[in-house]
């Protein structure tokens, strides 16, 4: 299963993850599905402006996360 979503996390909000105050990210996919994944997966996408853009997340048939990818400019 592949779902796409938009994300806009400010540097201030990212600090919550680094301080250990937030362990998970919860977003709504383009299809309206609630997706939850570990906040640590965002580290690869952090820029000085935060984490923003379009993303794609892939799960196997059992619901295990396979990969999260930035889509053009994310």
Write the layout of secondary structure elements.
Blueprint (H helix, E strand, L loop, with lengths): L1 E8 L1 H8 L5 E5 L5 E5 L12 E9 L5 E7 L3
Q: Helix content range of the residues, please?
A: 10-25%
β-sheet strand percentage? over 45%
Number of beta strands: 5
Major sheet: arrangement of strands: 1-4-5
**Unreliable sequence segments:** none
> Helical stretch count?
1
Q: How far is it from the N-terminal to the C-terminal residue, by CA?
A: 20 Å
What would your notes on this structure say?
The chain has 74 residues and is mainly beta. It has one domain (2-71): OB fold (Dihydrolipoamide Acetyltransferase, E2P) (Beta Barrel). 11% of the residues lie in helices and 46% in strands. It has one helix and five strands. The chain has one helix at 11-18; strands spanning 2-9, 24-28, 34-38, 51-59, 65-71. It has a three-stranded antiparallel beta sheet. It has a two-stranded antiparallel ribbon with strand order 2-3. A hairpin with a 5-residue loop joins strand 2 (24-28) and strand 3 (34-38). The longest helix has 8 residues, at 11-18. It is globular, with a radius of gyration of 12 Å. The two termini are 20 Å apart. The mean pLDDT is 90.
